[in-house]
Amino acid sequence: MLRLKKFILLSLFIASNLLSFEPFTDKELLPAIEQKHNTFAKKRASLLQERLDMLRGKSDLQKLEGVNDFFNEVEYSSDIQISSKGDYLATPWEFLCNNLSDSKDYVISKYFALKYLNVDHKKLFFTYVRSTKFEEPHMVLTYFETPKSEPLILDNDNHKISPASKRDDLTPIYNFNGDTLYKVGKNSENSHKK
Amino acid sequence: MTLFKQIALILSLFLLIILTTVLALNFKSANKGVQERLYDDAKNTATSLSLYLGSANGDTTMMSTMINANFDGGNYNHIALIDVDDKILYDRKIESNLSNIPKWFISFVNLQAPLAYANVSAGWKQVGILKVQGDATYAYKQLYAIFINLLISFAFIAVIALGALHLLLLAILKPLKVVQKQAAAITRHEFIVQKNIPYTKEFRDVVLGMNTMVTKVKAMFDKGNDELRAQKELEYIDKSTQLKNRKYLTDKLPSYLKIDSSYKGGVNMIVALNGVIEANEKIGRMRVNRLFVTIANIFSTQTKDVKDAIIARLNGTEFALFLPNYSNENAIELAKNIRQACNVAIEGAELDITQTVISIGVYEYKNTDTVSELFARSDNALAQAKFNLQHIHIEKADCAIEVMGKEAWKLLINKAIKKDRFTFVSWSVIDTKAKKLFHHVLSIQLTLDKNTSYSYAQFMAPAIQTGLSVNIYKKVLSMLLRHSSMLLSTSTYSLRLPYEYLEANDTYNELSDLLRANAATLNFKIIIELPDKLIRQDSKLIREYVALFRKFGINIGIFEFIGESDDYQYLQDLRPIYIKGESSYFLTQSDQSLSALRLITDTVGMSLIAVGVMDIQTLEKLQSRGIYVIQGKVTEELDLDAS
Questions:
Q1: What's the rounded Cα separation, in Å, for the pair B294 and B292?
Q2: What ipTM did this prediction achieve?
Q3: Which of B50, B84, B124 comes nearest A150 by C-beta?
Q4: Is the domain B406-637 a CATH 3.20.20.450 member?
Q5: Regarding the domain with residue range B244-396, which homologous superfamily does it belong to in the CATH classification?
Q6: CB B121 to CB A164 under 8 A?
């Protein structure tokens, strides 16, 4: 009987801790998303939260795959085709709700989702690359296990996560990560403006 | 502090606070802009240089060359390349040169050049992090220049704004000056009606209120003036002959019968007409009255050249011809002429000169006589005249036994003037209602040595005779103003100045110099007393003296007032602080006359002072007539409030 009581209390404690995580998608945001976009957009936002909840506690590689797969479901389109605003950086929710984005928005959404899942942001890089396939600038999210290790490429074109050496179609140009952003301090105006 | 200063101070402070706040906000904005620019430049350099460094494929020598090229070609404080193990691969640093910027400004701004970071990669491989920090010297210089420019601009704006504020306040508060001027005039008992009515409602109401008040007070003064003039006619003028009456002569005589009178003596001629009852029966009252008018005209004609002569009808049949400074020889001649002319007039009226007889008594008076002595001796002369054949009799005054001759007095007075042998004595003027000292009356005495001194009454008569009175006053005023410590008390003193002194050529300039040099340091207040006879002339000389005294804060008073003026406007114009009259004058005035006088004095804030009050009975009579401020022997018997 005493063991049962202990088990119930422990279960309740674990459950309460699990429930206490701050959600990536705020529940209060969902009605607004539905009103502005549609039910499908709301559904996608809810599914994202479910996917992230599911990945919590998994290895970095599982998290990378889960997040990569989820966001790669969104259809690719260039900024010009999406909006008249030109070069535009969308938030993860704009990205999901529009269900249409360019490579930068995939990278941003994947970065923040992985960061939400407690993947060390020092390991995540925004990398400008040149795609020999499309002959145009492209951006991928790169994951460095250690600063000296070969990075893994999270690409919206090639959905499979593979080491950089396997991606001959990509030529790296420039990369930066959240660590660089955070070093400028909390003043958002001093952060990378784009 | 004036209202203008208070408003100007508050608005100036308010304006300066606003300008300072705008200055601070402007500077803060410029500071923020400069700091942002500093970061943007560093970030741009970091990004472009990191891209450039990537092409070196991790060759440290190549990368350090690239960093040097950037560092030397731009304004940087620090550029560092750190590898993935946080080890510094290359570092360039320079100390900021802030020698041209004031230290207070550096500590005030405390500018921190922000660091910008960029990742450096060689292909997929991470080389490290590039750290770039701009040089704050340039930012400090730029900010300091902005700060100085802002200060100059705001100082200029502040000067313009404060100037505009001053002009605006002057324009807005201009009506207040008018109000203040009028209020000050009211305090000085001046009747100024403001014609320029201010447009500001509050000021307009005040000015209109004061105008109404001033108009009313002026109307009261004018009413008193008219009343007193009318009363003068009733009190002092004989209706049928238009000559002065006995009361006038009685009130006027004290100003001639005094020790320091301008005239040492003269003659008083009483002309009496006997047989009037018979004349009335013979030719009727109307014709007799016309005869009296003719005789009055004879008196006026015969004495028209005699300065300060008073022709008065004493009663139904007697006339007085008071002729100051007139010799007995001339008086006999004049009496004969008058008698002859009167006889012609009597005969012209179809009367017999043996029944209607003109008798003339001439009394040669001295200024030391009393009024009653003068009348008694004159009546005696008339009585004698009635019984002699010529019907003219002259009676000479008793010759006083002179202690000293004229020359001896002259020597003595000159010596006293030369050696400052004058001292001051004073007696009190008391407000018996408030039981307080009103002021002291100053007099002088001549003190030769410890045992020998002469009172004013003793030495002033010979001084006048020898023409030294002006010199005495010059000396006395010089002593009083230069050596004010001669007076022990810090009270208020009144000093009478005679006409001869004021009229002397160099008196005005000497007095001006004396007052300019000494008035500010006097430890007592002076009231200069001037005779009513002189002040009511309202001459240019008097106005100049009054202006001079006023300039140095010296008030004026009037003495020997008997209310004989044709217009009392001079009281309002010259605004003496009090009027002194003989106690007999106040006691013999009618209620209407006194009431009119009080109306005048109350509206211009003057006091009435009765002089020569010798006993308690006279004091009580004066008090019953509303005269409470007194001067005279009786003051020695009065107790004053200690407070």
A1: 5
A2: 0.74
A3: B124
A4: yes
A5: Reverse transcriptase/Diguanylate cyclase domain (3.30.70.270)
A6: no
